[in-house]
User: Fold DUF1566 domain-containing protein from Chromobacterium rhizoryzae.
Amino acid sequence: MQQVTISLPLGTAMLHAPADEAARVLIEHFTRPANKPAASLPNIGEYWRGQGGVYAGMMRGQDGQPDYHLIVPTGPVASVQEIAWGGYDHDEPDAKSDLDGLANTRALCESERDHPAAKWAAGLVIDGHADFYLPARRELSLCYANVPELFDKEWHWSSTQYSRTNAYGQDFRHGGQNSTGKGTILRARAVRRLANSAL
Assistant:
């Protein structure tokens, strides 16, 4: 078998193959289409085409989970003016995450008690996406910091339980958070996420 030596910009390569086979391999390699470029990330506050809403920023993953991009949908179906958290005087041990609203929402939807705000968010379908959820309180903090203009200047439910009787809410007028009785009627806004690795 003939040995072929090829000079490259970064050095010399040696192929142990017939010359015509070596040429075929090189031509195939250097004419192969480049990998699809990563989707461009919009600026915070800009509509993210194909993702169902406005880009609110990057959330840090919890307990070793990957970071992800938070997206806030727009339009009248993306928020509700009056809704209760639900499940008053009932502990939801799997809905206490300050960071993971998706896990909280799933736990509330699977509960034997009714949780209207979480079920409303999980039932949304916007721009072909059906993976919306009620944000956790730290996700709402990010929304207040980065895209407060998308929210009514009122209190909004988070999916984070505070106690058997209370859950956390986010004030979009002054930026505070506090626990509120689960039967209280507040606003709610859904969000969705996109893993950083999906870009």
Observations:
- The longest strand covers residues 53-59.
- Confidence is low (pLDDT under 50) at residues 34-38.
